[in-house]
Inverse folding.
């Protein structure tokens, strides 16, 4: 099967880029032929070339809405897809999802959209949320399938009327396993906390720092991994709260698995999400997770079993939950083991790739039944 992936941007490397990279590598190992189209240049392009995945750079595909540039990006996508002639187009992220569906329809190639969280999810301001909902309602019929990364997002899609129920399917993210030496020791003391998140409005570093300001009688240190426009603001807040000697701002790192292995508790304090890979990475390492209960996070973290869920912006409860874990090594160990078991049961790369491939094959099988002349190589009709 020839699959063209379209991703809006090549920088920075975030959850969407990792999702597409891991999926492309896994499907290539199963005998398929993925090619990735992405906006501009950046570390994502370098990573793909290192793995041997073909990549096409699209100079005009960018995140901000710009009518003239977007029209040029549409032409670039159309020309690249026409040249590649894929059996199927898999679209990831909002801008690529809209433009890619238009190009796919004009070429007569089936397209699937994977929604990594909707731009109208709770937590996003009402006016932009309403605009994005209307855009997705218009573009919904252009996709043969919509894949959501959580049941929460599937319900949002159906409530918004983006597509019929049989055309919206949930496939949970999955990630490759790590070697034994990268598994954490959550019962070790003193406790190192870690949060992997960009410094941007989506994330809520300020609530985390304010919660930790009330736990300074406990021995702990915090690693904040990621960069972004709000980093300096958060550095100033940490200093004003007297946390500057306890908090390390590490920037974007390529050794997150090693940093998690040295931690005892993972945190994700946020305003909105899809189904974050950072939580799966923490569970894979055997860490308890304390996270904001938004979108699909409750489908990954089992509250009271593999970690704790806290309402958005709740400083006091966040402080209480983190404080409990700081004081109880046995609790950290039990929850970490539970998270690791949950990762193995539900969120491995093999499970994720197999379920995604099944959706792809179903779409192509339906197309073949409608027109038997259109039978791409490697697709078993009836799967």
């Amino acid at each position: 099967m020839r699959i063209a992936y379209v991703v809006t941007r090549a920088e920075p490397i975030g959850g969407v880029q990792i999702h597409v990279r891991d999926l492309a590598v896994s499907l290539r190992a199963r005998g398929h032929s993925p090619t990735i189209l992405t906006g501009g240049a950046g570390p994502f392009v370098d990573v793909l070339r290192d793995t041997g995945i073909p990549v096409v750079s699209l100079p005009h595909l960018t995140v901000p809405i710009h009518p003239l540039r977007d029209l040029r990006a549409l032409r670039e996508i159309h020309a690249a897809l026409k040249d590649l002639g894929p059996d199927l187009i898999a679209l990831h992220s909002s801008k690529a999802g809209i433009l890619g569906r238009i190009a796919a329809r004009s070429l007569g190639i089936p397209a699937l959209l994977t929604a990594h969280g909707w731009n109208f999810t709770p937590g996003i301001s009402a006016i932009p949320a309403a605009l994005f909902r209307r855009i997705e309602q218009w573009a919904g019929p252009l996709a043969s399938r919509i894949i959501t990364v959580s049941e929460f997002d599937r319900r949002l899609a159906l409530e918004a009327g983006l597509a019929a129920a049989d055309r919206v399917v949930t496939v949970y993210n999955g990630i490759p396993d790590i070697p034994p030496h990268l598994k954490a020791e959550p019962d070790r003391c003193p406790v190192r906390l870690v949060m992997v998140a960009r410094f941007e409005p989506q994330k809520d570093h300020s609530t985390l720092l304010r919660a930790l300001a009330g736990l300074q009688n406990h021995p702990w240190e915090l690693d904040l991994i990621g960069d972004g426009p709000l980093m300096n603001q958060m550095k100033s807040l940490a200093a004003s709260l007297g946390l500057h000697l306890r908090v390390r701002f590490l920037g974007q790192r390529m050794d997150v698995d090693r940093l998690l292995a040295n931690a005892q508790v993972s945190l994700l304090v946020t305003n909105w999400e899809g189904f974050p890979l950072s939580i799966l990475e923490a569970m894979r390492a055997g860490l308890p997770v304390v996270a904001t209960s938004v979108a699909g996070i409750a489908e990954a973290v089992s509250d009271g079993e593999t970690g704790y869920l806290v309402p958005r912006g709740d400083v006091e409860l966040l402080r209480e939950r983190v404080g409990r874990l700081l004081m109880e090594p046995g609790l950290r160990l039990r929850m970490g083991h539970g998270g690791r078991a949950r990762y193995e049961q539900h969120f491995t790369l093999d499970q994720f790739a197999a379920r995604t491939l099944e959706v792809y094959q179903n779409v192509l099988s339906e197309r073949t039944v409608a027109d038997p002349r259109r039978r791409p190589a490697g697709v078993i009709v009836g799967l």
Observations:
- The first strand starts at residue 2 and ends at 7.
- The chain has 13 helices and 13 strands.
